[in-house]
Amino acid sequence: ALRCQELLVKLNQINDYRKVAFIVHVSLFDSHYRANEMKVRNLQGAYAFKCDMVFSSRICENIEKGKYPNAYIFSPEKGIETKRPVTGLDFASLYLSLIMAYNLSPDKIILTHGEADIAEKNGNILHKIEFPFNNCIVQARSVRHDNKFEKKGLYPV
Q: Using CA atoms, how far apart are residues 58 and 63, in angstroms rounded to an integer?
């Protein structure tokens, strides 16, 4: 175990986790083993506190579970493919590109028509989101930022 720890120190991996833990206000264990969502929330909270802002970090208790239509998920076949080239789709960066392009931040999603009307009256441009889920159509709106710095982040109501 000591040699393993010395190797991690030599690779500077432990120090990186210490820096992350310090910056995002989490324990060393959390910076190594936990997902990034908690780290991002803590970083947002620290920044919001410095700017005298408040945001909700409450987790929704009644999360709806279901399936999206036309999605087929299959297990990959193990082995090496030699007959044709194999490509990987980088959905993580595609997802981030869509978030940046359409400003699809959870803080900017509007789920009710009343809030959407208020946001439109305040001069915000809304992007309509619509998709089937659990045999019904889910509708929402997102406030567009149009690459203007003052419109990025939390939207004013």
A: 13
Residue type (1 letter), 68: Y
Residues 102-147 pLDDT 10s: 666 666 788 889 999 998 998 888 888 888 888 888 888 888 777 7
Alpha helices in the chain (DSSP H): 2-10, 13-24, 28-33, 36-50, 91-102, 113-121
Q: Distance between CA 28 and CA 65 in Å, rounded? A: 33
Residues 130, 18: Cα–Cα separation, whole Å: 42
Nearest to 152 by CA among 111, 114, 124: 124
Amino acid at 26: V
Q: What is the pLDDT of residues 24-36, one digit of tens each?
A: 888 888 877 776 7
| Sequence ranges of the domains in the chain | 1-59, 62-79+95-147
